[in-house]
Amino acid sequence: MIEQWLAMAGDGREFEAWDEITRHAEELPEEEVRALITALADWPGRRPMPHRWWERRSRGEWAPCFLLADHRVLYGDFDTRAALEDRPYDPDAHEEFYGTSAMDDGLFSEFNAIAVSPDLRWTALVSAAEGNTSSGGLEVFDAETGAWDTDGVQADDHYIGWGEDVAVSPDGSLVAAAGRFDHQVTVWRVPRLERLWAAGSWPTALKGAGYSHIGFSGDGELIVAVSCATPWDETAERHVVVADSETGDITFTTATGVAGHAVLDHSGTRLALVGPDGDVLIYRLPDGEIVARHRTALPGADTLLLSPEGDTVVAGGDGGMELLGRATGRVRAEGTCRAMTWSPDGPRALFTSEESATVIDGKGRALWTRHIEDPGGLLAAFTPGGHTLLTFESYPAELTAWFLTPDPLAPEEAV
Length: 415
Prior knowledge:
Elements: H1 2-10, H2 14-25, H3 30-39, H4 51-58, E1 71-76, H5 78-85, H6 91-98, E2 111-116, E3 122-127, E4 138-142, E5 147-149, E6 163-168, E7 174-179, E8 185-189, E9 194-199, E10 211-216, E11 222-227, E12 238-244, E13 250-256, E14 262-264, E15 270-274, E16 279-284, E17 289-295, E18 303-306, E19 312-325, E20 329-343, E21 346-352, E22 356-361, E23 366-371, E24 379-382, E25 388-394, E26 397-403
Antiparallel strand pairs: 1-26, 2-3, 3-4, 4-5, 6-7, 7-8, 8-9, 10-11, 11-12, 12-13, 14-15, 15-16, 16-17, 18-19, 19-20, 20-21, 21-22, 22-23, 24-25, 25-26
């Protein structure tokens, strides 16, 4: 059977073969599923999770056959992808396999940032304004219904003018967006996208600058926002604001040189940012005292990650990531760091190079890699704990959850 499936994949019937493989695997015990995975080591195509498995997984169930799939397409323009790859496409078969939640009309916005809830139900994206034809705004995808919330983009509680960054709280209940104009920082509660608050004129905001980065503390109680760099002088001071995520009340602010992001630890008692001359500064909150200063020579260091305890900071840049503080060391990687998260085994980071995207752990081991046509156009975000990587590519449109190891739903003996 293995030879037959490989032959089918080789002559253009990859999807049909994979459908047969997944149905065969449903009746196998775990050791036989693992043997099948080994036997399919040379499988030339993708290994998507069928919708029938995804529904069970979304309910918190687990089965050995789930180990066979390495990703789930949450939303996909399969018609365009099939045409680009010049291969057969059967809409009815794809709908049966992927489910209606993976099928939708095309998206035409150019998005700047992406965030995802821990259960993969909510995906949030922000877009920039497109000339005089449309304003930038927030788009939220509900993987349970397969629907995009796009109707209210021009409404007051969605309108952000020019979206720069977006974040979902660790418990998946809040969505926060940062933009250049109008409501520069806005927080909504899902699933109804009820706006909690908006800060269009925080007293610390530079006139007209807006905010380019936003993120939550690990417990979701606080958010941190960084104002946009001044176009004519990127060394000028930028405002870093920490606020209550439910009310928008400011708990700390400072004006300093910032390169890239600022991040909070789990409890929101430590704030890290890359300051002038590459120094990584650690602030104690809420009093704002600088309690540690680390020097990094990592080129282009602008992506940061704090350990849950706040005693180790990881800087990501060009060619690797660097651990500073209680744990130290340089981990080399090809390309530029695009996203990071803290897993039970330490840091995980996504790097993109000219032709590929790769996730590595704190020891430099590749956990996932994929050829990619347009690395610069890839948007990606980890779920908390780094179990899943969500990616979005605009053409053909595809929103994909990649399952990294270990699967948090699997029993310990199966991991």
